[in-house]
Each structure stands twice: as structure tokens, then as C-alpha cells.
Amino acid sequence: MFDFIVRSGLLVDGSGNPAYRADVGVRDDIIVAIGDLSSAEAKDSYDAEGKYVIPGLIDPHLHEEWVCMVDGTYGFLLKEGVTTVVNGNCGHSIVPGPLENILQYYYGNGLMSGPQVEKYLKTFPRWDDFAGYAEAVASRGSNVNFATLLGHGTLRWSVMNGAHQRKPSPYEALAIEKHIRHNMDQGAFGISFGLDYVPSRYADLDELCDTINIINEYDGVSACHLRHYIGIYESTEEYLEAGRRTGAKIQISHLASTEPEAFDLVKKAIEEEGVRARIDTIPDSLGHCTSKPRLLQFVMALSDELFAQGIEGVKRALKDPAGREVIKQDAYIFAGDKSSKYIINSGDPHLENRSVADIAAERRQDPDETMLDLLADDVPYTFWMNAPAANTPSKFVDHVDTIVNNPYVSVGSDEIMGDVEDPFDWYELRRRGSFPIFTQRYLAKGVPYEEIVRRNTSMVAEHFGIHRRGRIAQSYFADLAVIDLENYSYPEVDQNHYKNPLLEASGCDLVLVNGEVSLRDGQVDRTFAGRVLKKNNPAI
User: Fold this and answer.
1) What is the value of pTM for the model shown?
2) Which of 86, 356, 493, 527 is placed for a possible disulfide with 497 were both Cys, Cβ 3.0 to 4.6 Å?
3) What pLDDT, on the 0 to 100 scale, is given for residue 397?
4) What structural domains and CATH numbers belong to the chain?
């Protein structure tokens, strides 16, 4: 007697091998049989005739570590077929504690609003390390599995009592190492760097390598948000050099498809030099939608000078010519054509869904000054950053053949936690559909579905050291998704799509997480069957 059988589906097992028809039998949380189970009995089953049965997808780049403390349903992930995520990216992580310190770090980097911080201080459980965080997640529940990275920024902030533009002292470096070893021993999967953000941006190549060498002792992964301010290609080369010097596994985070030469650089380093690197990319994005208070936080986070002054310092700078020059120089989000920066959800109907460039032309003003004026005024609205300009596709749309055919590239949605109770505070467009968008786009370019699945399952699991997941095989955990490939999609956009921040994918008909049905016929069930995974514990 099986607990569950997925019957008659086309099995794509995650290895890259051709699909074949088979049943999958599950007992408890484990796949125990694959083959012809037509005569076998089960407590429950699902007819997958004409559909694909795949391993649960793995997203190696999210920022959803807080959301489960408010609501661990994660329906948008299940509807893509995602069962495991890697949190703690871009240098930002949930440890080490205490909670007050972590929340202050997240606020300082624009990742949480002031009201969120105040609310979470009152409602969240307390933890000091990875083990405490794992216990807190278990107490609240999650529909998906978590693998967690340590954030270099959080570590530096915690040990050095804030963001300081200097190297850690020998004593501080030892304290950082102690935190790393303590949390890696408890099950963390590696570390991440956010080289655009304070204080990770203050780390030179030697500091990166010293840190990565510690992680490498555990065969952990070191993921990196590159230094965009020096150029993506140049920063890719910098991080590849860290991989060369340490011999460690490295992950290049959300590499933009606008830089195909950087993808080629990584592929060459892997195949000709043996660098242990992988890439994740956002398959399509129409940019961030960010409320004015949150954008002010980002301006603060991206400026060494303004960071020390806080939000009030940013507001003062907006009213001072010298301060405005500092903002324009330090905050790279201001760079580029202002036709890709829109005002939306505005308290002023005259500004609604208009680009900053358009508003500047009407005001007969320099677009940079218009942007600063809009930040400085008292009108409530949301900035749509990196929006597609008129008749221009989004910056991530063009995946050239060299990217499409690069076997080391997976999806990394970079879905970022916003305020669950206020989805318009901060959201991204199209990222909740990253996996169906990637799938359909790459199918159209001739990539076999089996290869698409491999890149987003077993390749990620093997690189990150996620045990017994990412394949459909006996003794592996029963993380499974049934995909109606013809209908596996994400809603197309229209001119008002920014008004729908919570759109979800379709075409995923069944999801099992650790053997429990978490989605069926497109409907999400709050089973909370997900687990906080531990690199040092294959039994979880």
C-alpha cells in the first residue's frame, strides 16, 4: 500500500535524460517505486495522463526568509512547481541575531519598511543563530523547503556594530569566522555577498577569498550579487578570480541577460579552468515597484555618505544642491534613461503612469532634477523602476543563443519579500512567473524540456549540496510537480499590470512537498509540509 501514486505521467526525472511514461509511488515522505504501478493500491492518487511529472523545482535566489513568520503559504511558488528555495542571498540573512540587530540591518538596506520593523519586533519569535531560526520556522510553518545562506553583510554588520568602510580588525575577522563556523555546523549552506550594498561593498578581493575559504571547508556555496557600480563584466571577472583562488563552489546571482559576454566568461572559466561556478538569471523582469519611503531607504543604502545620516539625511540632501549631487553620484538606480522610470499608483492623477522623462519634458527640466523633485515632494505614489520604455522590451527579455545554450544557467527569480499586508509597498513584475516564462521561452528556442528541468532541479541541488532532492529517484524525498506544459504560463502584461502585484502562474496541477499534497488542480493547501533543510543532515 502506497500513500500516494502519481499515475501515467511523462516522467522527466531531473537528470536530463529523455522523458518516459511511468508511475511514481510515495510512502511517507520518500519516493519508493517508479514504473508500472497500475495494479498497486494507494491511499490517494493523481492521474497525470498527458502531463509531465518533474522533480519539484529549486529556486536558488529568493529573499523570502521573513515571510513565513507572517504567512508561510507561498502559493505563488507552488503554482510554478517550486518546492525548495534558497534564501539569504545578496549578503542579507536572518542570522546572526539578536532579532533587533537583524531587523535594523534589513531596514538599513531598504529591505524592510519602518512599520514592518516595528511590527515584527512585537510579533516574531527570537533567535540568535541558524538552529534558532529553523525552530522558529517550524513553529510557524512553510509550504516549501528552505535552504539558507549566511549573509556577509549581516555578519559584518553584527560583528562590527554597523556599516564601516574599513577592513575588519583581526579580532573582528576572528569573530566573523566564529559565527560562520557555528552556523555552518548547524546546517547553513554557505554564504552570500551583496557587493553593491553596505557593508559588503567594503570587502576587497582578499576579504572575499578569506571568507570563501572558510565556507569551502564545508563544501558550501558562496553566492554573489556583483558590484554593478564597476560594471557587470568586470565584477563577474572579479568573482571568478575568487573562485580560482579558493577552488570553492561559487554562484553568480541574477546575472542580467543584457550582458551575454559575462555568461560566456563564466562558461569559459568552468570548461577551460575548472572553476566551480554556476549562474542564476531572472528570465524576465519589468522592474521594481517601490513606494516613496522604500525608495528613500534604497537611496540611503547605496550611498556611503548618506547611509550614516539615515533617512532624515536623505531628505535633507534632496533639498540641498550638494546633497542632490551625492545622490546622483552614489545611487546607481538613478542612472540611465528616465523614460524607464514611471510614477504609478499616484495621489496625483496627472502623474499616473507617466515616465519621469515625460514629466521632465513637460516641466522643461533636466530629468535627473525631476526625479529628485518627485522624491522630495509630499505626494504619495509608487516609483516603477526599470519599466519598459515605449515600444522597448524589458531589459531581461533578450536571451541570446549563447545564454540559452549555456548549460550552467538556471532560473533565479530574485523574488523579494514585501509587506504581506501591503503588497503595493514593494513588489516586482513578472518574477512570480519566472519558471514558466523561462520554460516557454527556452522551449521556443529549441531547448528540450528535459534539459530545462535539469537546469532547475538536479543542477541546483548538486551545486548547493541539497540532499536527495532535484531528481525523481528511489529514496529521494517526494518533492514532485505535475505540469500541463501547454498551459504552463504566466499572465501577459497590459498597461495596468502594475496594479496587480500578486498575479500567479498557471499550468501546475499537482505539487507534493515531502510527500504531502500542497497543491491540487491549481488549488493551494496549507499543509506546511516544507522544512528548513540542513546541509549537514541528509535526513531532512
Assistant:
1) 0.94
2) 493
3) 62
4) 57-286+394-467 (3.20.20.140), 299-384 (no CATH)
